[in-house]
Known about the structure:
Helices cover about 60% and strands about 5% of the residues. It is mainly α.
Amino acid sequence: MTAPGRRSSTFTRLLRHGFTDASAAERLLDSAELMPVRNDPVLLEALGATADPDQALLGLVRLLEAQPDPTARRELLDTLIAAKPLRDRLLGVLGASAALADHLARHPRDWHALVTYEPRDLHPGVEEFERGLAEAGDPVSLRVAYRRCLLSIAARDVCGTTNVAETAAELADLATATLRAALAIARAAAPEDAALCRLAVIAMGKCGGHELNYVSDVDVIFVGEAVDGADEGKALRAATKLASHMMRVCSETTVEGSIWPVDANLRPEGRNGPLVRTLSSHLAYYQRWAKTWEFQALLKARPVAGDIELGEEYVTALEPLVWQAAERENFVADVQKMRRRVVENIPAAEVDRELKLGPGGLRDVEFAVQLLQLVHGRADASLRSGTTLDALQALAAGGYVGRQDAVQLDDAYRFLRSMEHRIQLYRLRRTHLVPEDDADLRRIGRSLGLRADPVAELTREWRRHTAVVRRLHEKLFYRPLLDAVAQLAPGEARLSPEAARERLVALGYADPAAALRHLEALASGVTRKAAIQRTLLPVLLGWFADSADPDAGLLNFRKVSDALGKTPWYLRLLRDEGAAAENLARVLSAGRLAPDLLMRAPEAVALLGDGDAGGLGPRGRDHLEQEILAAVGRADGAVQAVTAARGVRRRELFRTAAADIVGSYGTETHPAEADQGALVDLVGAAVSDLTAATLAGTLRAVVRDGWGEDLPTRFAVIGMGRFGGHELGYGSDADVVFVHEPREGVDEREAADAANKVVSEMRRLLQIPSADPPLLIDADLRPEGKSGPLVRTLKSYEAYYRRWSLVWESQALLRAEPVAGDADLGRRFVELIDPLRYPARGLGDDAVREIRRLKARMEAERLPRGADPKLHTKLGPGGLSDVEWTVQLMQLRHGHAEPGLRTTRTREALAAARAAGLIPGEDAETLDEAWVLATRVRNAVMLVRGRAGDTFPSDGREVAAVGRYLGYGDGMVGDMLDAYRRTARRARSVVEELFYGG
Length: 998
């Protein structure tokens, strides 16, 4: 009978010892199996020290229930109470692993494997594990023996007898012994095959690197040779049978489950290649066909089973090729591709919980170490370790990685691997996801020694270590370069000039000597400026290397720093505002236009400080016009006034280009803009508004300088073409027509002379050579084109359009919109032209035929000689002209009846046509996609080359930079061009039907 108050006392004690379900624990302690030791304080203390006391107690009761008789049960209890090593090991495993608790319940005598506590038992190797597996003669018994060995590894791990690196090495040794046992089973089943061949099993990946997880695919490669006198073909078939059988022994599910999958997909040609090859066949493949990642994989190759001599020959033969990989022609592109974290295939909801592949995860550390090994291991044999932490230590010792960086990275890697081990140990399932359930997080936290608040502490430590990896991942490559040129700490190991050159070449720098000179100029010395640069440059260099032209990025950064280095806010901005430094790196390495704009007024770098949401956001036309008109009002004379207006234009062009680049590339905190149309609209609206404001300011300056406040004639500027459509690109001219109307009592000739002088002076002032880019005014879309007068009165336009207007002029007027000058006159001009561009009866057949004829003639005559029509964004099939003429034909035909079509903007008109049922939705999407892509390409060409172009550049670096802007990684230029052709081809088929056939 329970004494009064006893339950509450025991209940409290259980809670104090870490039990979460004290009632259930009390019932288990009252069970017949535990009655003899129920009140023993040693047991409760030991349970409370486990990762999950509730789970440990339940597992212990199940193990006792599974004992074959009372004598065996008593033996277990006596040993448990008397022997602390067994108590800690057994309860530690039961509290950390439900899967191993299940194994012990099925095999209740296996607890004896935890009793031994001798020095040799503390760190067993392959031989000890082979002895543990020696009696396994079939797949089922092999699994039981494997779990028994795993039990001892887990016990040492959770008790802290071994650290995470030692545990991973033991798991790799157990895998080696298991592969050997599985191969022995396969050989025993087919002795005739075994007699024909030599078969070597090469461990790859984490097994080869001696750093295996609890549950992981075991990566292998097979090498086979015929024994003396045997036919090679028969020998390879025999070796393939043995290899296949060995893989099945490990991988297949039995009544005891499986061990782990054996994965041979790292072999030449992957799963499409033969499972077993001869050594000469392997060598031929790696010499001719292998990719950089395949040499990276070979860093961890290690013979583990079968014919070890043959395996050693394999490693010896391929080792020179591994260390020559950095000299391969495509190494830089491959490295840049591999350097980007591959998280696209991780579901969005899981990215933040991914220990292995997520940002700041294990893969980041492993890749960084392996890349540095490939770059520097050719000349330094001390770096040639397959084990991540050993290689990291060697890199630090040789000066290839900063010592403090290496220590922090080592700590982070060990913590993340420990988390991974504990997560996998629970169910013995392959996973790299941090669980979301608090009970799971509590168990993991307690198993890692975090006892005060396990969930909060675990989450905090995990995030801290992940942040360390993310911060150091790029610095790891670049900080030693700065140490090499700055030479501030005598006696410290540092990169040699040759090693620094090798690293820069490997990371994409075409002129490493110049890059080192820039680094030396920026980072040398003991000034505060140099110290801040040494802090900034490791990260900036990584962002430069992420572009198509790292050399240009670094050179431009030096130029900006030279210009602003003495300005107190410049380096402080880059250091203290996270967005500014990355935005600047993207802008300086994305092409010529933005850096050119910035170099003319480097103080504009301040715009980058507030990130996407503030400093780079486009300013509206009213705001721009107000600023420009105020600057014009303060200026002395028209020249100074227009110079001020052009200065604002230059600054705002830089703002727009920077926003476009940052949105296209993305940053570490903001992914690239997924909606390409939004980026096109941003640029088109911003540049068009800026051009309109600049014209308004120039008009004000010219009028004030020549006539005071009032011109003798009302004057308006009408935007045409892309300008009127709010679709200007960086290199677009301003297409306009000019209209005036003499004021009352003013002679028409005087008014016309004044209007012509205004136009002439505006054009002159906007093209005066200066530090600011010119703004070219093109009035060729006026009536009669170049043959007609430059400026007409509103009445003259009315008379011309009534008598002489041609259908192409009506089409051109679809894009007409007042942009500057007298607003009322601009409004009346629009009223005048609306009946022409939206005719009440639509278009007659003759007019439609004329438009089609003009379009065909333009395609035939205006395409530049030698240009590839399929890649010409303006005049090629499926290009801008195709889409715009198709949309404009619909506007001319249906604009009078459909108000939505009365817009100067192509995309708006296309959407309105779709809403009105004039074009099927799928066709509208096809045309919109093609128009947006062609516009993006033209913008990219201007950003990259600094001058306008309608087709892709021929220079390799330039076309790669266009690809990066469009979202294509390194080595994907062909994919980009194919995608453009495919998009344009689909659009052309729609145009053929709607424009030519409809």
